[in-house]
TrEMBL record:
Taxonomic classification: Bacteria, Bacillati, Cyanobacteriota, Cyanophyceae, Chroococcidiopsidales
Organism of origin: Aliterella atlantica CENA595
Protein name (record): ABC transporter
Transmembrane segments: 20-45, 57-75, 110-132, 138-162, 169-185, 223-244
Keyword Transmembrane: yes
Keyword line: Membrane, Transmembrane, Transmembrane helix
Length: 257
């Protein structure tokens, strides 16, 4: 498994270096989109607008959305690209299982993308003048968010295996993810708090907003909920992907156009 991960990391590094201009363009688009929304909100609200820590929370949510969006599209996008280039079947007859191959590739690509996400965050903080806190305790809730994101990514990958083209569905999911990463479910109470804890990645995102935007201590009971949430969605995504893999192999339409 380590050999597979190192190979995928080398592949990702080569592609990243070869298409560096595209990566720089992605940083520019992400930061300019956020800053345009920020200027529009400031103009509409007038000179007396005071965001307070809400702007910090919005920045956290936007950067999380950028990160989760990359994770969600990594597996389904890889499946569609491999099918178009005619190399999808080679991945499924490798000594490793398909889920191991795609998970190793997604994690390797994510490690390379962390630098881009960090650059986007620093530029946004510099443009808005709002500097977030980065305690070491944010690693645990970030892992819960990534678990849920990879679960959704595998679920989208299962759709790509069966239906081949899922671009429109992926576009709809992008707006849903923006809602999940931006809405402050950690402030909900009563029955709505339970709903917020059931939404994918929402508990972990709420903890990150509390840590980075509001400088609150780590909420251990809420972290436990976030771990369960991320683990369940990850397990569900793996199960759906395994079912889709068995289905396309049984009907012999793995690489159909």
């Amino acid at each position: 498994m380590l050999e597979l991960f190192l190979a995928e990391l080398k592949r990702g590094r080569i592609q990243f270096r070869r298409y560096l201009f595209e990566s720089i363009g992605g940083i520019a688009i992400a930061t300019l989109t956020f800053y345009g929304l920020f200027l529009s909100a400031s103009y509409i609200a007038g000179p007396g607008l005071k965001f307070g820590d809400r702007l910090d929370a919005i920045i956290v949510g936007y950067v999380l959305w950028t990160l989760v969006l990359f994770v969600m599209t990594s597996i389904s996008g890889t499946l569609q690209r491999e099918a178009q280039t005619g190399t999808l079947e080679q991945l499924f007859i490798s000594p490793f299982s398909a889920s191991q191959v795609f998970l190793s590739r997604a994690i390797a690509d994510l490690l390379l993308q962390f630098g881009l996400i960090g650059a986007i965050l620093v530029i946004i903080m510099a443009l808005t003048g709002r500097w977030l806190a980065f305690p070491l305790s944010l690693i645990l809730p970030l892992l819960t968010v990534l678990l849920g994101a990879y679960g959704i990514s595998f679920a989208m990958g299962s759709l790509a295996l069966i239906f081949k083209r899922v671009g429109q569905v992926s576009g709809i999911f992008q707006f849903g993810l923006l809602f999940l990463m931006s809405i402050p479910t950690e402030e909900w109470t009563g029955g709505m708090r339970i709903v917020g804890n059931l939404l994918p990645m929402s508990p972990g995102a709420g903890i990150l907003r509390n840590l980075m935007a509001r400088q609150l201590p780590l909420d251990l009971p809420q972290l436990s909920i976030a771990l369960i949430n991320g683990g369940l969605y990850f397990a569900l995504g793996i199960c759906l992907f395994s079912w889709a893999e068995r289905r396309v192999k049984r009907y012999g339409n793995l690489n159909d156009y």
